[in-house]
Structures are given as structure tokens and as C-alpha cells.
Amino acid sequence: SFLVVYKNTLCSLNRQSFSLVPSTDTDIRTLQSEVHVADSNERRPWSDLKVAIYMTTHLSAEHLKFLNQCWPSAIEKLPLLRDAHLIMYTSANITEDLLKKLPFQSITVKTYNETRYAESRRKQDGAIRAMLDPFKYNWFSNYDWVIRLNPDVLIRRDEWLRMTMLNETVDAILIEYIKGRAIHTDFTAFRPSAPRKDKLYESRITNAEFHMYGGFEHLIQSGRLQWLPHAERTGGAARVVGKQADVIHHHELVNYCPDFFNVTQEEF
């Protein structure tokens, strides 16, 4: 493992050290920024929460487009992202140039080795492992909330999300995939203590959306969650649209970046 530290001065980054070496599941690459923090009296209550953006990706060409063209402006504009810490879970190699474009409070990269299944099965396997490894290795223990998403899932507005995360009666924010059976894995927000880890570990389900449902079913039954408002499923794939939805998962949205926040074209 190794540490990469940058000092953020007037948006410039001063390189101190960097290395790209083979890593394992337990290797950590951390990019930390020293940023000016306003006096606590000036900060909004939501900023007291420590939030992790847990990004799962194979770093496909499409994901790289979103990371390069959309995420820098999203982090700059949205307080929820700007104050958050990124944990990236990937089977790909990460470059210094990519990390420098993502001004989170810190960045930690966790890598894993892909299975040798066919592509569709590899994606499902990776998505399921992404909800097993963090609890096995306690990656989330220092955070109040975790927002799991993919690079092509964009947050357009964050006021409702921040308000809901401050609600002590809410332990998760979910998007329904199939009523009573499956929830979206491409966007899931939760307190780290909320999921039933035993249900996730013991499940033999090979579909990620159905597997995820088992870990959150108790919250659905108890009502300790909020469904993301105005989210609409489109087509058979795991895509989320909605003109008023705060979160959008649609591959065409990259064409409107960096200023994608108020796009209301018919397809969205």
C-alpha cells in the first residue's frame, strides 16, 4: 500500500509522490486534499456527517467519459459530493491524471481480481462482491452514510438527499427495481450499520439486484427508509430517469456534461 498526498492551493495540485504498482484487495491508494474549512458556525448541519461515495466500476470507456466530463463539475457544484470521501472499487488500473480530476476530500482505491465468467456474469459477480468486501474489511466503519453508485449514475440535485440523510428515522435511500423482490444496485444510500450483513453473506443469489434486496428487506418492512422520489425505471435494463429525479442513470446524459444538472430533455 502507499499514500499519495496533494495540497490544494487555489485549485492547483503539487505533486509529492505517486506510484502505480500491482495491488491486491487490501492495497489502498489514497489521495488526500488539504482544503480550507470554514468556521463551524458557518457550516450547515449536514456537513457534520462524514459521507463516503462508494463508486464501483470496471472503468469502461463509457465510465471514463462520465468521470472525465461529468464528475469534476458535480463535485464542484454539489456540497454533498464536495465534502465527501471517495472509495473506488475496481478491477482496473487507476491513473494519477484521473484522480487529480476528482476533488473529493480523499480518495481510496480498492482493487479486486475479476472472475473468468462471461461478461454479463462478471458484472453481476463484481456488483455482488462490492457489497461483501466492504463489510468483510470494515471499509465503511468511519462513515455516517455511504452512497453506492456507478460513474454513469449522476446526482443532479442534493438538497433532498442531504435533508433525508439527517433524518434519524431513515437508514437507507433506495430505488425500487422489481417491487418486493429487487432494488437498484447502481444507486443505494445507507448507514453502514443498516444492511443485514448475514443476509448478504449467506445469499446464493447470482443477480445483484435480487441479492441486494435481501440485505435491505428488513428496512423496507420496518419503514426505516425512503424511496428516491420521482425515479422512473426505463426499459428492461437498470436505468433510472425522471424529469424531477435528483439521480439519473442514463448513458446519453454524458452528452450534456459538464452542465447536466437541469437537463429536462424528453429522454430523461
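the 2nd protein, sequnce then structure:
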Amino acid sequence: MLRFAVLVAALAAGARAQLCAQSSVDAAGKSGMALLQYALDTGTWEKLAKEKNLDPYEPNETFEISIPCKYFGSTFCGAQASKCKKSKVKMTLKDILGLASLHVDKLEATEVHPTDGTCSYSESGNLDAAAINCGYEGVGDAEVSLPAGKQIQVDVRNMELRVQCRNTVLNKSWWETPFKSSKVTCTMGSGAQADANLNFCAATCNESLLSSSFSHAAFSDFTFSNYDDTLQCDASGVPSDVSDKLMEAVESAIIGMFDKPVQDILNKMLDKELKGGFPTKCEAPASPQ
């Protein structure tokens, strides 16, 4: 289950929304989350990923991830009459393919508060002052998953597994690099879910509690879970006698590296779309002729 801290505030250049009753913003928050989820799940998510060249995503970024010694380190040091103190993997994330397939299963406001239209998360708004009614902020829950039949592929280059062993008898510690691979390919299949926080700003439009326009939304603390049975990695040059333990170490490091790039991609998609108002721009109705 994806938990996220949600901040929603109406915003308009040089204007303030009225402070609405609690019952009003409760209804606005509920309908606003439903509108946002519907918009993302009816093509917008996939469309944005393709248009902004975020699927495939090609960060070409190097990471160094600490992993538990139980993944290969203990076995490696034990063979040298020593114990594993630390274990880490250094790798370059070349690209991620398939993020457009992520599905927002649930967005639900659980606590909502009225505001006067001041947004803590965005310096400028996209809402017409004459159209703003209620500003609101709150917290909520959500679920994001990879649907059946879909997968995310991760391409990693220049991976090194580093292990620090310690011999207590000799009172000596040292680092070794028991494994290097020029290329690692990992696939995450359906069943994987993610948890995150989400900050966002919105307002109701034209005195309708069923119409909200968002000017900002951003994930934080994005973390995949339930991936153990869905993640499979293949690395070049893996010794057959240590393959299982070694690949457990690789998969642990991949997940540790994976969350932030995915969060960054999703935020880039949201940020671009929300600059114009989302799902629709909040505008005052046309004056009667």
C-alpha cells in the first residue's frame, strides 16, 4: 500500500481563496483524488512518459549501494576464515524501460484541511483568481502497481561487488572485489507494488466541490515492495558455483538503487502536466453576452 503525505493548496497569482468549511474541503479532497487518479489511469501517464522521453529513461548515473553481508559477503569471507563486516555494490544505471506501464491503483485523501489558497510547494500558480473557490491540504493513501502482463527492464553496466572481511585472530580487515560484470539486465514483472509520500496543491473551481484543479504534485520516499518473486537478474561472468548467492546480492543492490530514479521520472511527468492545470485548468466561466 502506497502511503503518502499529501499537501493540497489552491493557488493563484496575487489572489487568495476563501477559507472553506471542513465539510466542504473533505468532499473536495475526496473528489479531487478521484479526478487525479482517473486522469492518470486513462492514458495520461503513458502519454506523458512517451512524449517526454522518459520511457525509456536513460540517466547513465553511477550508484554505490550498501547491501547485507548475508548476500554473498558472509559466504565469501567465511571461506577465508574471516567474517564479513560490510558489503556494497557499485554500478552504473544505463536505462529503465517500461515505466509507462505503472498503474495508480488508489489515491485516497484521509485527512483534509482548508487553506486560504497559499501553496507551500509551488512559487507560482496556474489558476484563474476569479474561478478559485476552496483551497485545501491534507494527507492520503495510495497504491501503485505493475499490471499483469507488464514488466520493467533495468540495464546496468560496470557492476562491482565489494566485500570487507575481518579476521579477528589477526586483528586485520581488508576489502576485496570478488565479482565484476560489464552488463547486468534485470526484469521486474507484475505483482510489484510501491509505497511513497505525495505532496500536491489544488483548488476547487467555480464553487463546485466536484471540480478540482491541481497545480503541483510530487512523490517522495518512493519504495518498491513485494518484488522478491517478480525480480530476475542476469549478469555476464557469474561463476556457476556461487551464482545464486551472488545474484541475491545483485538483486538487493538493484532494488536499493531503483527507487529514486523511478520517483524522479514520475515527478517529471507530473510536473510537466500540472503546469497547465490538471485534469483541467481552473478558469472563470465566460461572461454572458
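Residues 1-15, 120-126 have pLDDT under 50 and may be disordered. Residues 147 and 268 are 22 Å apart (CA to CA).
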